[in-house]
Amino acid sequence: MKYRIKRNINSILVTENHEQSEICAENVSIFLWNRYASLLIFLFIFLGIIAVGLFRDPVTMQLPRMLAPPSIDMPFGTDHLGRDIFARAAHGMIWDLSLSLSVVALSAIIGITLGLIAGYMGNWLDNLIVLLMDVLMSLPHIVLAMVVMMYLTYGPSALVFSLVITGWVKYARIIRGQTYSVREQDFITCERVLGAGALYILSRHMLPNVLPAIVGLAALHFGHTMLSIAALGFLGLGLQPPTPEWGTMIMESRPYIMRAPWTALFPGLFIFIFIVISTVSGRILDRRFNSAGGEYADNR
Asked: Does the CA dihedral 194-200-204-206 come out positive or negative?
């Protein structure tokens, strides 16, 4: 009789713990969804406001209105040449977003390819790729980008190239580690026994299983790349004036920052907002895509 009562109590406790775990998981998912929805709403509102500036002229100079403070006509004021900072910041967003997306996309493609090859093939090819990654990781990426930009013609292509040189390494390291784990799974062994080639296994099985590991990294890398582009522009090694780019705008405002702080405030504020958005998005996406806890799906 006592044994039955004890067993019933244990079953009740197990059921309650299971229910509490489900409630906790549901609360976590609701919390993450609310953060994600709030982030999207804020992003759409922010982009809607900035889109108004795309219809304004960012290069026309109005010297009589130089360093004019923010007003209804000029919401962000004017710079030292009388140019509309609102329009320049909006067009600068196009430049910074397009350059950052290009760097992230190229870095991901190169890193995924080399990471898959190194993790699956192994042997001397793996050692060679790892050696290359270690060399590039030991170099400060911004210093290397500065050196590359000094020897290349200033422009968007050179800027993207200088940041991709080291940008692909972080993707390759993660993909390589994930590939090592996935290649030991039973379904990969079965494909080898059935005579499937390396290219088929990599594209059909490896890639879908390791790709979620870098989704959050890509979002974080986007914000980091935007900051690097702005830093190179501030140092005079990025896009050159009169191209409206946030880092270049801050660089041009240095002599007037005490007299007209709005010339540097709004470009810097835009950089801050986009970095915060990319960081929060990266954390949400990382939790969303890596919540399976290492379970691999055989997408056959």
From this structure: positive
Contacts 24+ apart (CB under 8 A), 157-162: 159/99, 159/229, 159/232, 159/238, 159/239, 160/99, 160/102, 160/103, 160/106, 162/232
Q: How far apart are CA 65 and CA 69, in angstroms?
A: 9
* 11: pLDDT strictly greater than 80: no
Q: Is the pTM value of this prediction over 0.85?
A: no
Q: Which domains does the chain have, with CATH numbers?
A: 97-291 (1.10.3720.10)
CA–CA separation, 284 vs 287, rounded Å?
5
- pLDDT, one tens digit per residue, over 27-48 is 444 444 556 666 677 677 777 7
Q: CB of 107 within 8 A of CB of 168?
A: yes
CA-angle at 60, arms to 58 and 65, nearest 5°:
100
Residue with tokens 């001397």: 124
